[in-house]
Amino acid sequence: MSTPALEAFLARLYTDAALRARFLADREASLAAAALGAEDEAALRTIDAVGLQMAASSLAAKRARLPRRSMLARLRLALGRDRSGG
Predict the structure, then answer these.
(1) Contacts of 80 (CB under 8 A, 6+ apart)
(2) Within 10 A of 60 (CB to CB), how many other CB atoms are there?
(3) Is 83 domain-assigned?
(4) Cα 52 to chain centroid, rounded
(5) pTM greater than 0.85 (yes/no)
(6) What is the pLDDT of residues 70-83, one digit of tens each?
């Protein structure tokens, strides 16, 4: 089950290198700090580290090619919710 809190945490994992490094070094501490539900925490415990890094790199490359957008527009794009058509 995907919750808004999980989606927001994932967006931060994909876009915040420092958070991603802390998460990969100590998932339990990161999850405790995120205050997510048990089901969301269980899903994040199994996330593939290599896949996470690859997805983050891909998003960073895409963001570098995009014209400057507002933070909200970039977050919507990262979450696949960009309805602006551009």
Answers:
(1) none
(2) 12
(3) no
(4) 9
(5) no
(6) 767 777 878 876 55
